[in-house]
Amino acid sequence: MIGDARGDVPVTITGLGAYAPERVITNDELAQMVETSDEWIVERTGIRERRIAADSQALSDLSLPAAQQALEQAGIDGEDVDLLIVATVTPDMMFPSTSAILADQLGAKDAAAYDLSAGCTGFMYAIAQAYGMVVAGLSRRALVVGGDVLSRILDWTDRSTVVLFGDGAGAVVLEPAGEAGFLAFELGADGAGGEHLWLPGSGSRTFEDPEQFVKMNGREVFKFATRVLVSSAEAVLERYGGSVDDVDVYVPHQANVRIIDHATKKLGIPSERVVINVDRYGNTSSGSIPLALAEAQSDGRLRRGSLVLMTGMGAGLTWGSALMRWTAEASA
Ligand code: UT7
């Protein structure tokens, strides 16, 4: 699915927030739990540490501070929100949705609220969907949260997955605006590759092995990731009629520094324009892109007028890109 953002109904991001739990787990700590080492993890992934939710924290607890920050930056209250989408694969529970729980906490009384599942690409799908709702006039103020507590669904004895992931959430407010923020989107999925990254036993299909842990074929996901990060970015840029040289801030899904480096080189984006925080947070799934975006805003890299390219990829297998002009003033 690919499309230009319609210029006659400009929509932009007016608020951005992020939250990661306080507890830091270093590679050395992981090396005490599974057979691994700081050296292996850094060399193969670039990850040095990750944040892990406290036992008492569920996704809504991570999402709430991120959402409050985004609302504050947008200068609106919870009751102003009429659409709330939470992109996640680790909701508080299957139902009620985390978005309904969050809407209640924020006082977004009459907002439509639902969760969206598209693996680590969830945030990209959710902003595209919220964008469409705002353009169609169904929503005036949409709050989109991307977040996951993947630590809950990891097998903490499996070194091939446990070293990669972390917990975190980010949020954005989308509103109609005087000038266009969103310029183009490209989204896709390849269900044939679904079994390379999956959570068997988490739904209505019966499995012989009912363990509900993330299972991953790392090499296949790596190949997929390096391919789609490039193809999706190129597709969205071509659709907009822009070149990679125009991109000021590149925010790729934070899965592995090697994947990011590969995409960056192939696309020809200078490294100083690439936002990387996977070293400190690991792969936070749906939280990855908004966490990185918020970091780029707080360190001043995301400025009014910046052309921002975001590309996610993950379970499904799914991918998605958005191209936007940052219209908010630099602040945080
Ligand atoms: O949002 C999407 C989520 N997933 C991803 O993005 C994952 C994409 N894939 C990757 O990032 C990489 O494939 C990994 C980081 C998962 C693995 O890196 P790799 O360079 O592809 O390593 P590998 O799977 O080829 O494994 C190399 C060796 C193996 O040992 P042998 O068979 O060569 O003896 C593994 O058993 O490394 C071993 N290994 C480890 N060793 C120490 C696997 N995990 C670990 C570990 N510590 N944590």
Instruction: Give the strand tally.
Output: 14
Bound molecules: oxa(dethia)-CoA
Radius of gyration: 18 Å
Strand arrangement within the widest β-sheet reads 1-9-14-13-12
- Give the overall pLDDT as a whole number: 95
Percentage of residues assigned to helices: 25-40%
CATH topology of the largest domain: Peroxisomal Thiolase, Chain A, domain 1
Oligomeric assembly? single chain
Gist?
With 332 residues, the protein is an alpha+beta fold. The chain has helices at residues 27-31, 38-45, 59-74, 98-106, 122-135, 159-162, 218-240, 257-267, 278-281, 288-298, and strands at residues 2-4, 11-19, 24-26, 49-51, 83-87, 112-116, 142-149, 167-176, 182-189, 197-198, 215-216, 249-252, 307-314, 318-325.
SSE topology sketch:
Layout: E1 2-4, E2 11-19, E3 24-26, H1 27-31, H2 38-45, E4 49-51, H3 59-74, E5 83-87, H4 98-106, E6 112-116, H5 122-135, E7 142-149, H6 159-162, E8 167-176, E9 182-189, E10 197-198, E11 215-216, H7 218-240, E12 249-252, H8 257-267, H9 278-281, H10 288-298, E13 307-314, E14 318-325
Parallel strand pairs: 5-6, 5-7, 12-13
Antiparallel strand pairs: 1-9, 2-8, 3-4, 7-8, 9-14, 10-11, 13-14
Helix pairs in contact: 3-4, 7-8
